[in-house]
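Need residues for this backbone.
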């Protein structure tokens, strides 16, 4: 959750510089629930993908 919030903070700062106030964020963290992690953490590649932040951009209606 902390990683996702850090990314959101970086994006909010960049959007503020561009005078964009019409962007909303919804942040979800799945890292603390081992059942939701897509991979084990046995190998570096698995740890990498388990720590990835995914950003979906959904246009306003």
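Answer:
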């Amino acid at each position: 959750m902390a990683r996702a919030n850090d990314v959101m903070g970086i994006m909010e700062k960049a959007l503020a510089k561009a005078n964009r106030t019409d962007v909303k964020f919804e942040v979800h963290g799945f890292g603390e629930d081992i059942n939701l992690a897509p991979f084990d953490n046995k190998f570096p590649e698995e740890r990498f993908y388990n720590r990835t932040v995914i950003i979906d951009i959904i246009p306003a209606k």
